[in-house]
Amino acid sequence: MSEKSYIVQLKETTDVNKVKADLEASGAKVGHVYDTVFKGFSVTLPENAVSSLDAHPEVQHYEADKEMHTMKKD
């Protein structure tokens, strides 16, 4: 079973540790926690478990983690 990484944005009133525990109980591996610009974290989980993000009431938004650049390379 392959895994995929996501960036998860939570609702502002959410207890991050509660959501982390919920997802870790389903086999997710939580990475970096974001708390400056938005509340959330990076997470790696099996592709068939992404529905746990859809179903979680405290998840506001998530997207697949990918490499991004701030400057164009020639």
Automatic annotation (TrEMBL):
SUPFAM superfamilies: Protease propeptides/inhibitors (SSF54897). Residues 6-71 form the Inhibitor I9 domain. InterPro entries: PBI_I9, S8pro/Inhibitor_I9, S8pro/Inhibitor_I9_sf. One of its GO terms (molecular function) is endopeptidase inhibitor activity. It comes from the Eukaryota. It holds the Pfam family Inhibitor_I9. GO terms for biological process: vacuole fusion, non-autophagic. Belongs to the protease inhibitor I9 family. This is Subtilisin cleaved region like protein. It comes from Schizosaccharomyces cryophilus (strain OY26 / ATCC MYA-4695 / CBS 11777 / NBRC 106824 / NRRL Y48691) (Fission yeast).
